[in-house]
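F.,

This is the one I mentioned.
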């Protein structure tokens, strides 16, 4: 009696959606493969094939035994041939074949194999049973998985992929691959194919049988639908089978039913594992999952963990993926981390995705200091569920511009205010009568302020100041602008930081800061947004040293009307990013040209829109496709940083950067060099920190010479010494002159590159260390020392952006006369629509400002961003609402025009700067021409001879 494993699915139930409106090459698919361990099929029903009606048991695969060569079969991106039964060139298996078999070779990817179109031979409502005899040949140690997969295509949507079954195959024998599938609806095209071994390994196929049965003939059997992710791919996840399939990573692992005299017991089950005798933080417990995870699928990881011993009560515990590529390159992918304790079990959760086809994958848990045991009760890895996006927030009566602060003008004394702490509040006078500039830009014409202020005296702690409860006055997902005048009294020693803060359920939220070192009134501007319902929200003003009086006037917190701001920005954009163009035709009788149809299309906007990429990203063809279509600049996230190119002294690694540069050159993508040095000490390699002054000077010179000579002329920009407003490692160790020296030497080694300063929180008003004023002073100081600063980098890691605040910072920095770039822009919100709103604020502000000459996003693909909830494309390739907003803006900023030649033999339009094509239909011929619209105040005249 022949049996097979039943793994039925209903067509369409678990489809993965790809990008729309383009043909889907086979290699851009996301196969919905279970990737579970071999014993994960136990829950499925076993069906006897011999019980099926013989009248229904016709094989729907043609040329199933390859007796007609590869007729009806097609290699998928690779090569194939058939070995005949009497051939002496048999390969791959010692077990004799009963007939011909196909060899699929020159496989560069695991998804490459052999396929057949079975569209005309399958119907909805039937269950199809699959049985194939398969083998492998080539550079293989141990076993490799072979998979049967179905591809469903529809004209109006992306292809879907479904896992049918798999088997583990060694080089010595043929194995049976069995499974079933059924379709609930009929797609336009159905393709069956076999795939799966590692790249470089040949796939051998002896026969394929796919037979059908009606639903009634399977009555009483299970038709449970399964898809990738229904099963844990971790073998022995709760240690029910002892420590089988587990090992220690540089340490010992043991099994316990309890520890500490019964105080530590499993959260679930009977036992837990402990990684013990750990001598390094990376020591831990691991399991190899090679062959059970598939590229371009997102996986969720959940582990129940705690720590024990070494008098450590709390420590960082991490899940990490170690990946080895076929060319033996190693990658470490951080999945999740949290603070675990010795008191309770906690759940460690995260996600990961593999871009390329790995030769080996190991998942492990690490992190605590040496000597501390890591306890693991369970570990689950499943295909990540697709979470539908949150709906756009519906906000009734947003009351744009209405202040939520009560008695802001103090016309009713201090009613509505209360002192935070045992300070004293009273009403003072002499404050400004005008709104602070950033609020005025948002609110427009406004009544004068009262001239009264809250005077705070008898302050004994820095956090003491005036406060109000505003819980019931705030709406979720609205962006609020914060504005106030602040001043401090006498007695301060040194600059004082004054902060408008919010306590949201006892969590501190920054509403804006100002540094004050004189007796003038200063503007505070900031913003915030609340995305989860709080039980209590308090706003308060704090900051000066104890004993220093504080004065606050005209405190305003109001929701901003972004649409009104956008209307203003569209007008500004039209002024600075467009130019009048006159197409002047010649070569024919002007009267005959009158009325000739002209069609103008912009093919490329010259404004730089770029993104951060990583080496692993470029192994994902879907990532590269989105990159090439939607960005014209790129910056490397880590691969050019010193800690990446020289992690140990003298051991240089430029391979990653070289490969990324090659990709950018291939697609005409310009590149920024980020970064030559990084001033923040925590980012500096330990071997550099251990050098004495002379050796450190030599190392700095070698870094400059090595990098700038190798890549001379290849990077258009360099961030020379990253985040000098927030760090001072090199300056502290080598003196103040080292910063200007870095600029001057870099310029000598590569004069073609613009050299940038680069820092964060310049644009949002929430960090006094990097206010626009401080940044200007910093640049002028470098220039006075002879540093050839060529550009100002604003990173742009921003929350709840407010246009006038961002624009104010740009206006201030504009006095330097240097090009300004947003170099690392990202925004974050759990709601994709709100994230899109934030992104639109930043892109419109940048595009409408004359001093801004480029915008770089700090990534766009989920799981490859420095901040959560900031991606534009979901992990498996679906463009989300924020990404759609970006694409719509790009479309808005591309000109199309059409019309007829006028009586002066001209056609005029106003268009964005960039490259254009024009088509002219005359009576006798069609003419095409390209031209470029560059910046300029006067109309551009383009002469076209017909």
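My design for it:
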């Amino acid at each position: 009696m022949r049996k097979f494993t039943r793994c039925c699915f209903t067509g369409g139930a678990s489809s993965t959606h790809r990008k729309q409106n383009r043909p889907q090459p086979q290699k851009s698919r996301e196969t919905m493969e279970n990737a579970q361990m071999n014993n994960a099929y136990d829950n499925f029903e076993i069906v006897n094939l011999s019980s099926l009606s013989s009248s229904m048991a016709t094989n729907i695969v043609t040329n199933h035994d390859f007796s007609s060569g590869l007729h009806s079969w097609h290699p998928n991106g690779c090569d194939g041939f058939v070995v005949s039964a009497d051939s002496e060139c048999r390969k791959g298996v010692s077990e004799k074949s009963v007939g011909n078999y196909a060899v699929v070779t020159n496989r560069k990817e695991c998804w490459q194999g052999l396929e057949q179109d079975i569209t005309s031979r399958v119907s909805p409502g039937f269950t199809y049973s699959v049985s194939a005899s398969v083998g492998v040949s080539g550079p293989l140690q141990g076993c490799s998985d072979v998979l049967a997969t179905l591809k469903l295509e529809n004209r109006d949507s992306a292809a879907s992929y479904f896992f049918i079954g798999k088997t583990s195959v060694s080089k010595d024998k043929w194995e049976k691959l069995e499974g079933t599938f059924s379709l609930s609806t009929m797609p336009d095209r159905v393709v069956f194919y076999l795939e799966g071994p590692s790249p470089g390994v040949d796939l051998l196929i002896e026969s394929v049988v796919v037979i059908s049965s009606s639903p009634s003939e399977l009555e009483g059997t299970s038709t449970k639908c399964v898809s990738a992710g229904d099963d844990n791919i971790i073998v022995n996840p709760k240690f029910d089978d002892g420590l089988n399939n587990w090992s220690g990573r540089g340490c010992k692992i043991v099994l316990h039913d309890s520890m500490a005299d019964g105080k530590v017991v499993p959260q679930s089950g009977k036992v837990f594992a402990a990684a013990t005798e750990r001598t390094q933080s990376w020591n831990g417990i691991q399991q190899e999952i090679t062959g059970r995870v598939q590229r371009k699928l997102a996986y969720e990881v959940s582990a129940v963990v705690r720590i024990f011993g070494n008098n450590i009560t709390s420590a960082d515990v991490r899940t990490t993926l170690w990946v080895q590529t076929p060319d033996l390159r190693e990658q470490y992918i951080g999945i999740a981390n949290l603070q675990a304790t010795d008191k309770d079990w906690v759940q460690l959760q995260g996600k990961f995705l593999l871009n390329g086809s790995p030769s080996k994958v190991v998942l492990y848990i690490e992190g605590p200091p040496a000597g501390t045991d890591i306890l693991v009760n369970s570990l689950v890895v499943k295909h990540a569920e697709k979470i539908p996006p949150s709906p756009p927030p519906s906000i009734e009566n947003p009351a744009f511009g209405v202040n939520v602060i009560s008695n802001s003008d103090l016309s009713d004394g201090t009613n509505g205010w209360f002192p935070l702490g045992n300070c004293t509040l009273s009403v003072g006078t002499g404050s400004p009568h005008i709104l602070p500039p950033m609020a005025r830009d948002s609110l427009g014409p406004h009544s004068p302020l009262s001239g009264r202020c809250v005077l705070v005296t008898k302050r004994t702690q820095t956090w003491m100041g005036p406060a109000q409860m505003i819980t019931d006055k705030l709406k979720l997902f609205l962006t609020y602008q914060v504005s106030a005048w602040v001043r401090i009294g006498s007695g301060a020693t040194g600059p004082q930081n004054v902060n408008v803060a919010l306590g949201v359920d006892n969590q501190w939220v920054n509403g804006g800061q100002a540094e004050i070192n004189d007796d003038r009134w200063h503007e505070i501007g900031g913003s915030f947004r609340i995305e989860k319902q709080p039980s209590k929200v308090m706003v308060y003003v704090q900051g000066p040293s104890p004993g220093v009086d504080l004065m606050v006037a005209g405190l305003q917190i109001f929701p901003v009307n972004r649409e009104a701001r956008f209307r203003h920005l569209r007008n500004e954009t039209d002024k600075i990013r467009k130019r009048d163009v006159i197409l002047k035709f010649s070569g024919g009788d002007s009267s005959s040209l009158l009325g000739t149809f002209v069609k103008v299309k912009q093919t490329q906007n010259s404004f730089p829109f770029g993104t951060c990429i990583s080496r692993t990203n470029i192994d994902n063809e879907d990532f590269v496709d989105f990159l090439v279509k939607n960005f014209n600049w790129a910056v490397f996230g880590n691969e050019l940083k010193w800690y990446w190119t020289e992690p140990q002294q003298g051991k240089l690694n430029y391979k990653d950067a070289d490969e990324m540069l090659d990709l950018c050159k291939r697609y005409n993508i310009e590149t920024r060099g980020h970064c030559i040095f990084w001033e923040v000490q925590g980012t500096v390699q330990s071997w550099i920190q251990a050098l004495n002054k002379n050796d450190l000077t030599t190392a700095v010179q070698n870094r400059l010479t090595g990098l700038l000579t190798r890549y001379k002329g290849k990077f258009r920009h360099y961030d020379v010494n990253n985040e000098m407003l927030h760090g001072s490692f090199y300056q502290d160790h080598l003196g103040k002159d080292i910063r200007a020296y870095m600029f001057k030497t870099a310029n000598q080694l590569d004069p073609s590159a613009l050299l940038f300063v680069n820092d964060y929180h310049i644009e949002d008003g929430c960090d006094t260390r990097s206010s626009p004023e401080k940044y200007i002073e910093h640049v002028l100081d470098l220039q006075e020392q002879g540093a050839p600063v060529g550009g100002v980098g604003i990173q742009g890691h921003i929350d709840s952006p407010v246009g006038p605040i961002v624009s104010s910072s740009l206006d201030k920095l504009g006095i330097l006369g240097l090009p300004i770039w947003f170099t690392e822009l990202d925004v974050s919100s759990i709601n994709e629509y709100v994230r899109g709103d934030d992104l639109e604020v930043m892109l419109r502000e940048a595009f409408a400002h004359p001093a801004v000459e480029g915008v770089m996003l700090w990534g766009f693909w989920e799981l490859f961003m420095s901040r959560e909830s900031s991606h534009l494309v979901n992990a498996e390739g679906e463009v989300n609402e924020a990404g759609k907003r970006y694409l719509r803006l790009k479309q808005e900023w591309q000109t199309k025009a059409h019309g007829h030649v006028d009586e002066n033999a001209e056609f005029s339009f106003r268009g964005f700067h960039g490259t254009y094509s024009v088509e002219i239909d005359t009576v006798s011929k069609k003419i095409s021409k390209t031209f470029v619209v560059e910046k300029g105040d006067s109309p551009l005249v383009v002469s076209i001879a017909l």
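The two ends are 80 Å apart (CA to CA).

Talk soon.
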